[in-house]
Amino acid sequence: MFRHFAAALAAALCLTSAASAEEPLISEHCLGNASETCFIIVEGQIEAGLTDQLRAFVGDGRDARRVVLNSPGGNLGEALKLGRYLREADLDTSIGSSDAMTRDADGRLTPMTLAAAGPGRCESACAYAFMGGVRRALREDDVLGLHRFHAPGQTIDGDSAQQLSGMLISYMVEMGIDARIFTLASMQGSDQMHHVTVTEAEEYDVTTPFGYAPVFLEPYKDGLIASAKRLDTVSAYSGVDQVTFLCRGGQPLVLLHAALHALEENSAGTFQAEIDGTFVSLPGDSLTIRPNGDEAFITAKVPPEIARAIADASDMWLSASFARVIGGNYAVAMKPSPMDRRMIASAFRFCID
Prior knowledge:
- Keywords: Signal.
- InterPro entries: ClpP/crotonase-like_dom_sf.
- This is Periplasmic protein-like protein.
- There is one protein chain.
- This protein is α+β, with helices and mostly antiparallel strands.
- It folds into two domains: about 1-205, 2-enoyl-CoA Hydratase, Chain A, domain 1; about 215-350, Immunoglobulin-like (Sandwich).
- The protein is built from nine helices and 19 strands.
- It has helices at about 1-10, 50-60, 75-90, 125-130, 160-175, 180-185, 200-205, 305-310, 340-350; strands at about 15, 25-30, 40-45, 65-70, 75, 90-95, 120-125, 145, 195, 215-220, 225-230, 240-250, 250-260, 270-275, 280, 285-290, 295-300, 315-320, 330-335.
- Strand 10 (about 215-220) and strand 11 (about 225-230) form a beta hairpin.
- Helix 1 crosses helix 5 (about 160-175) and helix 8 (about 305-310) packs antiparallel against helix 9 (about 340-350).
- The longest helix is centred in the middle third of the chain and has 17 residues, at about 160-175.
C-alpha cells in the first residue's frame, strides 16, 4: 500500500523550476559520420508519456547511447519512470542545450551538427531522471538543481511527505546515488533551488567517475614504470583502460592496454599526441601490437624530446590511431597533476636524463 500510495502521489506532483514550461522535444544528433559521437537530446517539460516516446525513439534503430537533458522539471512520477528506463536501456546521461547546435534555414535542428550540446540545465524532476543514467556527467557550466517537492494548489501532509521522501530515497539508492544529497533538496523551500556543484556531484555519486585515476609507480627490472588506470568503462572506439610509461633498453615507451579491440599483430597505424596544445605524429614503425585474446598491448616508441614533453604535460591526448573498422583511435586523455608528472618523469628518468 505504501509503495502504491507514494507512487500515485509522485505521479501527481509537479517539480518544476520557475521558468515557463516547454513541450518536450526529442532528437538525435551526431558530430559527423561517427556513431560514437551520437547523442539524443531531450528538451522541455517532463510530462506523462515522455518515457514511452523516448523508448519508441531509441527503439527505431538509433546509434546514440547518451541522452542529453535540458529541462526545468515537470511530472515527478514520469521523471522516475524515465530514470528507470534509462538504466534498463543502458543509456548514459549528461546535461546540455541545443543553443549552439547546427540548424537549417528554418531554424530546425539538423541530424549532423557541427557543435556538441552547449551548457544546459536539469532542475527539479529532471534531476531524478538524470540519476537514471548508467554513466552520468556534469560540466562546470551545466546546472543541476534540486528542491523540495510540492503539488501545485495542494498541501502535502506530514505522513504523505514522509512516504514520498522514503520512495525518493529508495529510488536514489536503487540508482547508486548517495541519498544524503536528498537533504540538500529537503532544506530548500518550494520556491528555492539547490544547484549541485561538480564537487558535490562527485562526492554524492550523482556523477560517475571519468578519466584516469592518479598515476602510480611500480618496480620494473632496474627501474620503475608509471601507470594510470581508467575510471570509467571501455566502449566501442574507446577501448583503452590503462596507460603505462616506461623505459626499456634506453628507449622511452608508452604502453596502451586495450580491454576492447579489433587489432591484429600486423595492423597498420600511427602514434599521435597532442601535448599542451602541440600536435605530433610518429610513423607506423613506432608501434608494436601484441593481441592476446580479448585484450591487446599497444607499445609506442617515442623520441626523448616527446618523452620529456609528456613528463611535463598538464594536458595530453595520446593515441594509437588505426582504421575505424579495427577500432579507430585507441586513445588516452589525461590532465596529470604535479605528482603525476613527477611519477611519469621518474619512469622515464633512465632514458631521458
